[in-house]
Amino acid sequence: MARAVESIGAVFITAARPDSSEGLDRAGVRHAITILALSPDDHLNLHAALLARDINPQIRIVLRQFNRTLAHKIEQNLPNCSVLSLAWHSAATYAAAAIDPCCFRGLQFPEPDGPLTGFATRIAEDCGVDGDTVAHAERVLGARIIAIDGKTDVSAEAMLAAEAELVVYGEIAARQGTAPLRSAARVKPEIGRRLWSPLRRRPHRSPRLNPILARLACVTLIVLLIGTWYFHAVFGGAWLDAVYFVVATMTTTGYGDLTPDRSKPLEIVVAMLLMLSGITLTGLFIAFGASLLTRIHWVTMQGLRPVHRRGHIVICGAGSIGSGVIDLLLALGKRLVVVELNPDATIVERAREQHFDLLTGDASRDTTLDLCNLAAAHGLIALTNVDTLNLEIALGARARNPTMPIVLRIAEASFAESIARHFEFETTFSAAALAAPAFVGLGRFPGSRGRVAFAGQEFAIGEIGAEDLSRTSLPDAIPIAVSRGDHFEIAHDLHGLGPNGRALLLFPTARFREGKDTLAAAAERFLQRS
Hints:
By secondary structure, the chain is α/β, with parallel strands linked by helices. 45% of the residues lie in helices and 18% in strands. It has helices at residues 2-6, 21-26, 42-55, 68-77, 86-99, 124-127, 134-141, 172-175, 189-201, 211-234, 239-250, 265-302, 320-331, 345-354, 366-371, 387-400, 413-423, 431-442, 466-469, 510-513, 519-529, and strands at residues 34-37, 60-64, 81-84, 103-108, 116-123, 144-148, 165-171, 313-316, 336-340, 357-360, 379-382, 406-409, 427-429, 448-454, 457-465, 478-484, 487-490, 502-508.
């Protein structure tokens, strides 16, 4: 996270511990405008922020906190403070990309419990809106068309060419029908062949019988046949009597209606050998049966079973980000299969209550992936804490279903870009890179939601309430959506927003990069009006 924040303009000063007044004072907190507490330790973040407020009562606080409920309560009770959960902030993008492979940025609007929305690309012809006006296309797509071929100056009456590339924003649920399926042709042929050929060449094999169990069965059959052959002669050629006696002797039933001649030692010895072999073999069969039942019970308890769902989304990793993705997808009514190596009691209980499949296993293993029915899956999201493990999962999934959308979590932004470029996993995201612009933006504007880039342009995303519109200057702002209570709708202007409404806007960052304005000056104007 520190590197991601530094890459967009932060400067780091080595000081003492951040949870000490001395360290904060050496870092210049006394004269600072904002403190960003972004360590992975929630307690440390809150402690450092409160100490900074003691030193500088006017300082703005931006906190990173895992607990979303606590974050909301802190914001309500601590003035001039914004709290953000990195896991929940990035979970929206992972969930949105799993449903719509062309989505490059997801967010909930309004925060914190609004519907899942996202920015995505579309080709007019593929969506069936070529030749339509922009206004009609927006009604068909259920989304706001923000840009056409890289131009944001969009007229509602403009006609869409067949090859026009659109950037749209709207509810993910409303856009599911227009989301294009990933074409197998977009996968590099040599990669696809290399990954798929080992599976294709491997013929289907029926489950193998345990070799030890097979040997025991053979020995038992041999003993039964030899005993039957011998006592067939003893009982005067009666095959049924011979089989009956051998089975009764080997199973130690011993009815006593048929017995060997006690005057003939050989018959007695053979009968004794049958008893001993029967006891031994029966005991071994019982041991194997108990072992099999124990294994079946363990597998059932662990959730390692074949999945028979269709159109489901496989989530590999149910950590902090994975939990957020699960919540967002369940809210959209998606069928889920969650694979977690070490699930805690909470996720197990949620699987029972919310009726999704939980498999306890290593998602990088072929046997685990084979249980997930990937051939019929809608998509897969790899969200473990290990980048190479996520890549291994993704490659294994692609081998089983080359056209399935796959979303990858990669920690480092540069590594994520390299993987997306070389392996053609286009929906590869760094959680830190997704959240860093939001944290930096919150240091200046309470409603900052991060940044989004398309067609060579970069835009800051801002959420603002109706009560702030009258005192806030919005130069070059592009309204894209409004929310009135529980009602979400796309917007081209802010008329009729209502007293309790919220608006989502895009702000071009070019004016700041070109030196026409500065973020500090814009923030100062905003704070003065507040």
